[in-house]
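Minutes, project check-in
Item: structure for the 304-residue chain
Input as provided by the requester:
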Amino acid sequence: MQVELAQLQYMLPRLTRMWTHLEKFRGGIGMRGPGETQLETDRRLINHRIRVLRERLADVQQNRETQRQARSGRFQASLVGYTNAGKSSILRGLAGGEIFVEDRLFATLDPLTREVELGDHQSVLLTDTVGFIRKLPHHLVASFRATLEEVKDADLLLHVIDASHPAWEEHRQVVDQVLAEMGATEQPVLHVFNKIDRLGHDDLIALQERMRERLPNSIFVSAASEDGLEPLRRALLAKVREQRPIAVVTLPPSDGRLLAELYRDGEVLDRREEEDGSLVLRARLDEATAGRLRRGGAEIRAAN
């Protein structure tokens, strides 16, 4: 729907030039020629189709908003990057399963979210998004906005860069520009240099040394090898631990509501019951969940 909407919006102001071959036919007095009649018909049909697509996309946007609310409380990361940078391959390598991967423009049009196990009882929701291209038309950016909204709700952006492409620096700037146009500049960014298996040893070492100064928050991976994504998995695990530290939560006796909220929005590691009936739990919590629990009467302190 998003691609069709972009095509129709591109086509609408260009309809006049599409029917110039009918201009030689003229109608009689008070009559219109077939070219003008066909032009008006096409314009009416295209405008109707645009309205239908916009209404359907509004429904899709509302459904996705409901899905995002259901995922609140979970650590979410989004894969962004230039087209063909290897985002879908990274998602498939981390999450497994059947994920469409193909070397062509816009192979991924619909955001796909999978749960990725990181070890140490930790996981992350990882979303693959549409790839960007240079000089992306503004109407196309607007059409993809429903897809790219997943980016604005992410706790972490994984900016995937094809390290083997000779123009990767230009591609990185294009992605940064589109993210800025969307207003997605507040989230932390981890630069993921992919396809390092295509680089020679000396080229890889030189790239790593350059990025140590220019983009210190960078990792180097290869989705083509079995262990090539382990640096990314470790980096994600560190980010999850950083944003959700372990806390000791003491709940009043028989407070089932707070206990249910803790299990729903936090990650309980262990629990015990005190002599007075209160519960003491060790759990990973983000700041928002910890604040709600405190307001409900829970006592929270940092774990030793």
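Outcome recorded: Residues 21-29, 104-108 have pLDDT under 50 and may be disordered.
No further action items on this chain.
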